[in-house]
Every structure is written in C-alpha cells, then in structure tokens.
Design brief:
Layout (H helix, E strand, L loop, with lengths): L1 H17 L8 H8 L3 H14 L3 H17 L3 H14 L4 H14 L6 H14 L4 H13 L3 H14 L4 H13 L3 H14 L6 H9 L2
Helix pairs in contact: 1-3, 2-3, 3-4, 4-5, 5-6, 6-7, 7-8, 8-9, 9-10, 10-11, 11-12
Length: 211
C-alpha cells in the first residue's frame, strides 16, 4: 500500500510546494475520474488533502472527491463530502445548492426534503436575487405538502423571473392546494393559454374543473 501511495505523495508534495493556494491543480485527478479510474483519483485526492494547509485547497479537493463519488453512483458519500466542505466554507452557495439538489430527490436513496429546504433557504439568504434558489426552496416545501409555506417563495421567484413556466405551474398548484383555489386556477389557466401543450395533466384537470 505504501509503495502505491508514495508516487502520489511525492507528486503532490512537489505540486503543493510549487503552487500558490490559488493555483492548486486537481486536473490529474479530474482526468482520472473522467477515465473512470476512480481508485487512482481517490488516492491522488486523499494524498493532496493530507498535505493541504489552506481552506481553499481543502475545499477544491473535497469538491472533487464529491464529484468522484457522484460519478461512481454513490450519492451518500458524495453528500458527505459536500457536507464536509461546509466545515471549511459555510457560506459556499454552490455547495449548498449541490446538497439541496441531492436531498430534493436527484438521488431517491438520499432524499430528505427537510435537508433540501435547509440548504436552499441558505442559498436564498446568500443570493436573494436568484430566482432559482427561491423556486427550489418553495419546491422543498411543496414536496413536504406545506403548500401555504411554498406559495410565497414561488411568488418571489415569479417576481424575479416572470417567464419561468415551471415556477408558474408550481405557484398555481400551491395556491390551489392551500385553499386559494380561484387564484391557483387563474395562474394555471394563464399558463395553459400561453403554453397549451404544457405537460401537466394535473394543471389541465384543475382548469377544466373550473369551467
């Protein structure tokens, strides 16, 4: 095992001594991941992490370990590395976004709507003008069937991006399901007038029932 690790240790000792914290080079490991040489990439990244002293370096390495396990189809391990990143960079919005996506249902085996909401709400706090984060916070509430809580977030996303049809769909549905049926039906009707072939049988049924 030591013989297997030594070449990587010496390689990254020289890299880290030669590079500034901003220029750490994970490209050899990334290339290995893309070539599906996962064991090789893991050894390289693990050796780098053991040698890293700066948080920026550690975040870069952990991001690539998370990427590695995502590519391997091991979302639980991927999520654990993204969570580890937040120990060094608690306000890293991209990491909160990744975790939100994982827990919202990108991988059914690690689905956790409460955790998804936690991470997307943090994204909203960090970047309040991004409609994507407001929408996905609302979507987490919607998946938990908390429609009244979801509605203001969809409304916020609509203000930030009025042309987003997916958000308009969820806004109409959340209004309808939170005892604001007339408002919800109106939003859905507007959506279907603008996009008659929009793929939502539920929206079409609600609009038809209101005729």
């Amino acid at each position: 095992m030591l013989k297997q690790l030594c070449p990587y240790v010496f390689l990254f000792l020289s890299l880290l001594s030669a590079c500034s914290r901003e220029s750490i080079d994970c490209s050899p490991a990334i290339s290995a991941i893309k070539n599906k040489e996962y064991d090789k990439a893991e050894k390289m990244l693990t050796a780098m992490f053991q040698l890293a002293h700066h948080n920026d370096d550690k975040v870069a390495i952990l991001s690539n370990l998370a990427y590695l396990y995502g590519e391997k189809g091991e979302p639980t391990k991927a999520a654990s590395y993204y969570e580890k990143i937040l120990e060094f960079a608690p306000d890293d919005v991209e990491t909160h976004d990744k975790l939100g996506s994982i827990y919202l249902g990108e991988y059914p085996e690690v689905k956790d709507f409460e955790k998804a909401l936690q991470h997307y709400k943090r994204c909203v706090e960090l970047e309040p003008t991004k409609p994507y984060y407001a929408f996905h916070s609302g979507k987490a509430y919607y998946r938990m069937e908390k429609y009244a809580a979801a509605t203001p977030l969809f409304e916020r996303a609509m203000v930030l991006n009025p042309t987003d049809n997916e958000n308009k769909l969820y806004l109409g549905l959340s209004l309808y399901k939170s005892d604001r049926q007339d408002e919800g039906r109106k939003v859905l009707k507007e959506l279907l007038i603008a996009e008659p072939d929009y793929p939502s049988d539920e929206a079409k049924k609600i609009v038809e029932e209101g005729k």
